[in-house]
Design goal:
Number of strands: 15
Strand content: 15-25%
Strand order of the largest sheet: 3-2-1-4-5
CATH architecture of the largest domain: 3-Layer(aba) Sandwich
Structural class: alpha/beta
Shape: elongated
Largest sheet: 5 strands, mixed
Number of helices: 12
Radius of gyration: 22 Å
Distance between the termini: 34 Å
Helix content: 25-40%
CATH topology of the largest domain: Rossmann fold
Oligomer: single chain
Order of helices and strands: EHEHEHHEHEHEHEHEEEHEHHEEHEE
């Protein structure tokens, strides 16, 4: 096979370990200079390809690329941008081909979740339809852990660790103040349709009475009466109550508790804050003093407390993507295959992009307790290995020492500009 350049981009919400995947892609590609020329990163995801705004990663030192492994967020910028079908917007696809041809790109690596893998799938279809040879490999990433086929998703383990630690620490605080002050603490976590992150909060409690006392999942219809009765019972028995609520918690009719009435670029409902909604319900019903918190970006940016397992898997997915491409594979996604729980072992497998594009994996019902407010032992067995181990970044002057790349632009070769 002739030597070609590669395109790598990050898409969707970033994570604490997506840069570890980028590191895996770039370091592995550099070991195969006979097959892969340069790795060009798309500035702000697929937008970088459409606007011919490419970043030359060869201008970065080996040390700088290695530092990506311990740096959070998206080093090259990400985006929420969904390509329409070829029939709806052929101009977008023609533009992609122009850019790929102009820069001799023969490898396409797109690092993202279900919507992002829809983009990967469309690019692979485009390659076949237009007769332009390109090895198209998706790379899994999502804090929501909702990609099908793969056992878990890079990015989730670190969010899960952050949430479990935060719930445990906050619970100690609330318990110490409950006699004369705050009796209820509500923590809101991400998870629009799937309750994996909320479930991870359940890892904080290991014994009877430990927090969280209530978990609200998107998969379980919210029942106001049952919820308020549960909170009251917990305060009576334990002196306080800690609630972990998914942003996607919803009523039986499907309406989100925190529906803000708008949508994002992927067409998803824009959610407001569910924590204050839930806290106010408790205040109105029982009069308890409360505090609430929204983990928001903190949970997915917390590289300082990332899961070692997550970092290793994120890097491995980037490395595997390049290896699959070099074997001639296309239109696939590397996945994590769990081979054992005790001891925890995993290996790398693969699936087709068609099986994961625009699809979500919900929490199995047997991972949620019968009353709908907690996690089962089966769920705990699944989650526990994913938060195991610490992979602290280097520190300088008391703060994490993260890398900021130069992100040198690649000179444009096309005369025409493309407006997205």
């Amino acid at each position: 096979m002739e030597k070609r350049n590669a395109f790598y981009a990050q898409s969707g919400g970033v994570t604490a370990v997506i840069n570890a995947t980028a590191c895996g892609v770039i370091e592995t590609a550099r070991k195969h200079k006979d097959r892969i020329g340069k790795v060009y990163a798309g500035r702000n995801g697929i937008l970088g390809a459409l606007t011919e705004d490419l970043i030359d990663t060869s201008r970065e030192s080996a040390r700088a690329i290695a530092a990506l492994k311990h740096t959070p967020s998206g080093a090259f910028g990400s985006c929420r941008y969904k390509l329409k079908s070829i029939e709806e917007n052929s101009a977008q696809y023609e533009r992609l081909m122009e850019v790929f041809q102009a820069h001799d790109i023969g490898y396409f690596f797109y690092n993202g979740g279900g919507d992002s893998q829809d983009t990967s799938h469309k690019v692979s279809q485009l390659s076949r339809k237009m007769g332009y040879p390109i090895q198209c490999i998706g790379i899994p990433k999502t804090v929501d852990n909702d990609l099908p086929v793969t056992d878990n998703c890079p990015g989730f383990g670190s969010v899960a660790k952050y949430v479990a630690v935060s719930i445990r620490e906050a619970a100690f605080d609330v318990k110490s103040m409950a006699e004369t002050s705050t009796k209820v603490f509500v923590m809101e976590v991400m998870g629009r349709h799937a309750g994996w992150i909320a479930a991870a909060g359940g890892l904080a409690g290991e014994n009877e009475g430990d927090a969280p006392h209530v978990i609200l999942f998107p998969e379980i219809a919210f029942d106001r009466r049952r919820f308020l009765a549960r909170v009251k019972k917990c305060v009576k028995h334990y002196g306080y109550c800690v609630v972990c609520v998914s942003e996607g918690a919803r009523f039986a009719n499907g309406k989100f508790l925190a529906d803000a009435g708008s949508t994002d670029a992927f067409g998803h409902k824009q959610l407001g804050g569910v924590a204050p909604v839930v806290a106010d319900m408790i205040k109105q019903a029982h009069g308890y003093k409360y505090h609430w918190a929204v983990a928001d970006y903190l949970q997915r940016a917390a590289r300082h407390i990332a899961s070692k397992t997550d970092v290793e898997q994120a890097y491995a997915m980037g490395r595997a993507a390049v290896q699959f491409a070099l074997r001639g594979e296309t239109a696939i996604l590397p996945v994590i295959v769990r081979t054992s729980n005790k001891p925890y072992r995993w290996k790398i497998g693969s699936t087709t992009l068609a099986r994961v594009a625009n699809r979500e994996k919900m929490m199995p019902r047997n991972y949620i307790t019968r009353d709908g407010f907690g996690i089962t032992q089966r769920c705990r067995t699944y989650l526990a290995p994913l938060i195991r181990g610490e992979a602290y970044p280097p520190y300088s002057n008391g703060l994490p020492n993260y890398i900021q790349l130069k992100n040198t632009p690649v000179p444009k070769k096309l005369a025409t500009k493309f407006r997205v």
